[in-house]
Specification:
Layout: E1 11-12, E2 15-16, H1 17-29, E3 37-38, E4 41-46, E5 49-59, E6 62-74, H2 89-111, H3 129-132
Antiparallel strand pairs: 1-2, 3-5, 4-5, 5-6
């Protein structure tokens, strides 16, 4: 039986627009809800291998604990003394930037009612071992 009191959710690009509008209004009414604190704990394993665990976050005005922790391994390719068992930290930074850009774009599109069929992006990060190894004072680390 259909309950007329139950409102259908407006979904755009997999985003619940009604919930998003509610969140925006809650933050407008209570600006302290805008404060976020992301946290990560890292542990060195061996060589260039280290592991980050992500679980706790401050958001919506209170401490939040995820049901499951996220575990991210990092390593280096062999030419940087690693075993190549995971992406390196710089690659994770690029992945994070790509994810942030994509998520923001999808949320803004959904807020405007714009249906997206596909979003792709490519990020590159230039680095030099001259700076990292301290071999050239004019090259940033």
């Amino acid at each position: 039986m259909y309950d007329a009191k139950v409102k259908e959710q407006t979904m755009v690009n997999g985003i619940n627009v009604d919930e998003m509008v509610g969140t925006i209004e809650a933050v407008r009414q209570q600006p302290e809800l805008a404060k976020l604190q992301f946290r990560a704990t890292d542990e060195w394993i061996k060589g260039t291998h280290n592991r980050t665990t992500i679980n706790e976050i401050y958001g919506a005005g209170e401490e939040q604990k995820r049901e499951n922790s996220f575990v991210i391994d990092k390593d280096e390719p062999p030419f940087l003394m690693g075993k190549n068992i995971a992406a390196n930290p710089v690659e994770y930074v690029l992945a994070s930037l790509a994810g942030c850009l994509t998520t923001t774009l999808v949320l803004f599109a959904a807020a405007e009612g714009v249906k997206l069929d596909e979003v792709t992006s490519k990020f590159e990060g230039d680095a030099s071992l001259l700076g990292f190894l301290g071999l050239d004072e004019n090259t940033r680390m």
